[in-house]
């Protein structure tokens, strides 16, 4: 009888720990989703400013060595802009999505464990 009480208390304690882990993960998932939304919005804003690289348009008024250097510089900037927007930001978004999936999977495992604990408790 005393052993049963101890086992029941241990199972209830384990269930509480798992429920807290689920809650913590849900909060993390929510924060990650908000971060992803902000990053996506900022990415769109960042991309909309790409045209500023080529302003002002000096192609018909400015010629020579400095004009060529400026055009090369602008081309390099545009390449960097593309790299930041398409590669680096997309990698961050993918990492966030993977972490969300990982936390959701962990919660599924915790939920399964809670179901198992509840079943065991129902046997008493």
TrEMBL record:
Q: Which residues form a coiled coil?
A: 1-28
**What keywords are assigned to this protein?**
Coiled coil
> Which Pfam families does the entry link to?
YwqH-like (PF16888)
Q: What is this protein called?
A: DUF5082 family protein
Gene source species: Bacillus carboniphilus
